[in-house]
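Standup notes
- HV: blocked on the assembly model, inputs below
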Amino acid sequence: MSNVPAELKYTKSHEWVRREADGSVTVGITEHAQELLGDMVFVELPEVGRQLAAEEDCAVVESVKAASDVYAPIAGEVTEANSALEDSPEIVNQNPYGDGWLFRMQPADAAEIDGLLDAAGYAAVVAEEAH
Amino acid sequence: MPFIPHTEDDVKAMLAAIGADSIEALFDEIPAELRARGLENVPAGMTEMAIGRLMQQRAAQDGQPLCFIGAGAYEHHIPALVWEIATRGEFYTAYTPYQAEASQGTLQLIYEFQSMIAGLTGMDVANASLYDGASALAEAVLMAVRANRKSKSKRILMPATVHPDYRKVVHTIVHNQGIELVELPYCTEGGNILPESLARFEGEDFAALVIPQPNFFGVLEEVDALTDWAHANGMLAIGLVNPTALALLSPPGEWGGKGADIACGDGQPLGSPLASGGPYFGFMGCKQEHVRQMPGRIVGRTVDLDGKRGFTLTLQAREQHIRRAKATSNICSNQGLMAAAATIYMASVGAGGLERVAAASHANTRALIERLTAIDGVELVFNRPVFHEAVLRITPPVGEVLRALAVQDILGGYDLGKDYPELGNALLVCATETRSADDIECYAQNLERIISRRSDKPVCTKLKPQDPAKHGF
């Protein structure tokens, strides 16, 4: 079973969400997702300032095996993209919950975050997929 | 010849397994009025000998005309070795080489093709080819809309100096995706897009500007100014180029301050014979930053576990067998055979040879313009420099003149009346390196005779055939 930090929120489509002190949220893909995809070769990130609807596809992670869309966990505006991934996409494999974050956004409605999965809920999704 | 491998017993066994009486019974649910009632107009089969003779008769009807038509497809000399090698069994299959361990030769050839196209266009990368120039331009437009992250627009600036058929094909392919082509009018004196005329679009959101070089009139566009203007206004620059011309002209990768972002065109001049419109092939290259938005196959060079050089398809995550509906394009295959011929053509003539082909085509076209405009009733329409085509205006209707020339086995040019009625009796002519001084003289004397007969003026006598026997006068 891969690592599912208790302090984060999750989606069924394998994104994680972390609330920041300034009210923004950071988004990445889970350790389980990067394990499934394998070695990353390219990450395409959303433009800063882009308005995202919840579940809108907004980024692409491309590995040696596949290219996979990343979806906005909640609605909001993109405030920052992790430009370090342009030259070093492998950071997503090495540290998916830390330096391997994908983008930050300002939620349109912070209450939407509460509706996401908690660690136990996401672990159940992963366990379900394994069957 | 039995193309279907099943025996009658196989068919019976399969029908029995699904409980059907006959193959015909499988189509029962299709209403009778929707069924085709046989192919009544298809004649009975013929023997190989008879069909061979029929085809030779049909081919002979085409004759061996002297061709002065360009308009997108050009008669160039193709060294004999090009098709001798291209039709070897190893190359004579176009199937995509997924299986790298069994396809190193094909993959290496495609890699070399890509390298040559990248070199010719000045782009960082090129793909393994597309279907033809028109669809390559459509793919470039789709690609620009995806790749231009500064623009939210799905509008493209499309000069009226782009080949009319290309514009129609692009429209057909892109309009159902909500992409709008905004036509740019040309300067009536120069036959080109005036960079200063674009000022009225400043501040508007467009994804890309298409820049043809040379344009459909053969005229050279001010590519540096157009490219810089596109970039200054948040657009990508798409260069639509003739590959032969690139041996003399600056490549799209060097246009303006930053170079064009995408280059595409038709590869026919590189080793494909004129053959009733095809098969030809399209080519496309781009800047490295846009490679993940490029359609088509890309072959890459790598090393195997032992450090030995090898070739394989790469960046496949763009393609539909991996990316499904989100693929950059539904174009996955390429025009393998024509691209192979182009690679062999470029390798055999070399950079210097291609330059001589381009220079001779340019010189012959200039000689043609000079000779034809010396005739009363023929004038050059545009005053800008041309590559190997030019627009001429003649006094009588173009259609009549072309028909009269065709009787003399001369294809005198492309009638612009349908696509550019505002130009009057306008004719697009071309002389590649395959046209000799005698060919040009033959055309000129016939044209003069035809025009003078149709004009009210007395017959001009200043031009006499130099060698009447040779030209059949």
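- HV (later): unblocked. Residues 119-130 of chain A form the longest helix (12 residues). Residues 9-130 of chain A form a domain with the OB fold (Dihydrolipoamide Acetyltransferase, E2P) fold (CATH 2.40.50.100).
- Next: hand off to the docking folks.
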